[in-house]
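During data preparation, a discrete fold description was generated, and the record follows.
___
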Amino acid sequence: MGDVSSSGTTLTGVNSLYALRTSGNINGGTLKIGSISSSLQGGVIVNANANIGTNLIFDPTSTDLRQGSIASGEALFYVAPDATATITGDVTANSFTKFGGALWFLGSS
């Protein structure tokens, strides 16, 4: 699990993990989150106002954001009450489920 503090982070290259918890901004690079079936899903937890400018792939087999596969899973996003997640990077997933506080899409999806 990745954990980003309120100071945020800038990614480079492709980064893979199964879950991400953030209280700060995330920019640059690509983040691959393992999500391959209804019983094996990864997700993102946003605990404070945060801009997520990195590209997100919810598919453990893809390295190219423009190409999902039949293995692409569901994107799960929890946003804490009174927090807003602003997504400005691209998102690749078969479906998208958001629960909790507000969520804005400003980039491609």
In short: The longest strand covers residues 74-87. The mean pLDDT is 83.
